[in-house]
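Working notes for the structural subgroup meeting. M.R. asked for a predicted model of this chain before we commit to crystallization trials. I am recording the input and output together here so anyone reviewing the notebook later can reproduce the run.

Input as submitted:
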Amino acid sequence: MKDIIKLAFPITIDAHEYKELSMRRPKVKDRLLVDRSDLHESESEVHYFSHLCEVSPDVIEELDWSDFVQLREKLQLFLGSRPSV
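Returned structure, recorded in token form:
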């Protein structure tokens, strides 16, 4: 399952304009990959989101802070959601 996050402030990286990002639900292995890295907490968060959105970390680094907060909020929704039975 993937969700689309529309960016309030689109960015351009390497001549590609990003108006939205697609984020997939995280798996345990995604978190383990980040936890095993020797990166600072902020850098590991950037790499985590780049992995979930399948874009370069450069894209995440260039986001406006409000758009980055949207990624965090979407992640929290993923973590708190349960499938309906």
